[in-house]
Amino acid sequence: MTASRVKLAVGSGGYHLPGQQTTRQGGTRMPATVVVGTQWGDEGKGKVVDYLAGEADGVVRFQGGANAGHTIVNELGEFRLHLVPSGIFRPGVVSLLGTGTVVDVQVLLDELGDLVARGVAVDGFRLSDRAQVIHPVFMEIEAREEALRGSHEIGTTGRGIGPAYAAKAARFGLQVGDLLDEQRVKESLELLYRRYAAWLGLDAAATAGRVAEACEALLAAGRRVARYVVDPLEVTRRWVEQDARVILEGQLGVMRDLDWGIYPFVTSSSPTAGGAAAGAGLPPAFIGSVVGVVKAYTTAVGAGPVPTEETGVVGDALRARGGEYGATTGRPRRCGWLDLVAVRYACLLNGVNRLAVTKLDVLDELDEIKVCTGYRTPEGRFDVVPQARFFDRIEPEYVTVPGWKTPTRECRRPGRLPREARAYLDLIAEHVGAPVFLTSVGPHRDHTVRAGS
Prior knowledge:
The protein is of the alpha/beta class. The chain is 30% helix and 22% strand. Helix 3 (137-149) packs across helix 4 (161-169) and helix 5 (182-200) crosses helix 6 (204-225).
């Protein structure tokens, strides 16, 4: 569809913060903040959480598993976290891997070991005893399910996430705390392998062998991880009683949400603010702010519709300049123009009241930038995301805005950003109805523009 050209007016950029709240003791309070992705994932939530954690007492990862990575660059180097919450680099901050997650314990131990080897203290790490354990068989099941789909494959990471959540819902799962009970692990594995034996072609002897092998591995991992395992309610209850500053960290984005995403090309849990309280173990009333993270353009990994994807020169240029390769799988990300229909939908769904825009610097060299502000289909126009069946015939409506052709990486205050860059941020804020309070202009923690600075 032909794009219209828009000259943007520069306003305040929405650079203001919501009002502070008052504690029972009469002081100012920073209630829990949920950080959610407003697109297809890979928006830069890890960097935003790492930045905000400098003012926090705790960080909770509330859903997902090792199927996505958060890339963080700070004074200690570059890190790719898959399970450990992004508050781990802040001394004194408790980083809780919450109840709503699914945990490959060996991957977790390897990740913790790598952090320690690189000089990161992990004494603040905690692991919920109610989080679900990923069994070795889940990866095998996931591979078979993907093969069964044929040309309709989801494009999963193969980390066993879907089968783990399916087993949890079917009450065949094993919780982290169970790893400290040998009999419980053995009984759980026997039940689980009986469930899958016919599909995997296992006879009784093969099943017994697989159970024994998996039991030994899980018990060994359980002994190593036991020092971190806690009752999460003991942690979160203290936070509530003390009016602590807590960040709830989601994984992936709203367009991959199990219920609200582009089904079936979705994850197996809810990365929305609505899922944060349950997954973290905090009362919903304790959540006072929702930060929506918006990449300045669109990327996605895996199969399924991405309306603004550019498969030619533009997409290749965004991928190269943005380093758009999956932190978990290394797969090249699908790239395209910013889709404000998806972002607006995510903000409405999550009650987003602040925006963090990332990778603005990737657009520094462009003469013009397209922005999708509507979807058109034979059935009519949509300005929020419709149900998934419409996506095979969506045509994006674009406006074209001027680029700034000026490096932004050294900017640290909103007023130092080029006029056109500030206008671009204004366009985002005005379209979705939430102010921009953080803008990332580079990969390092310090490459950040903050409102009021």
